[in-house]
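Last lecture ended with a question: if I hand you only a sequence, what can you say about the shape of the protein? Today we answer it with a concrete record. The protein is Sugar ABC transporter permease. Below, first the input exactly as provided, then the predicted structure, then a couple of comments.
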Amino acid sequence: MAKWSLGKREHASWALFIAPAFLIYTIIFLGPVVTSFYYSMTNWNGLSKTMDFVGLRNFAHLASDAAFLKALRNTFLFTVLVVLLQNGLAIPPRAGA
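The predicted structure:
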């Protein structure tokens, strides 16, 4: 049985230390993201036992929905205004320092 070189030993310890964090990240973050993306491609209402795959039809419906487009515009406008206002209020006091 061959001994591991220092580089391989460091790789193995790195993998052992990162594995629990990666597992937790996968379960808590990536799992729900992938699942919700899959559900967005179906017509499942969240309660029924059946669901049919509809592909991008849900997103095409959103793109033509006036209420969604108005909400998207309002969200974008709010974000831009808040960023400009907060930075506008924060930068002048620092300019004199």
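Comments.
1. The chain has a mean pLDDT of 88.
2. The first helix runs from residue 6 to 40.
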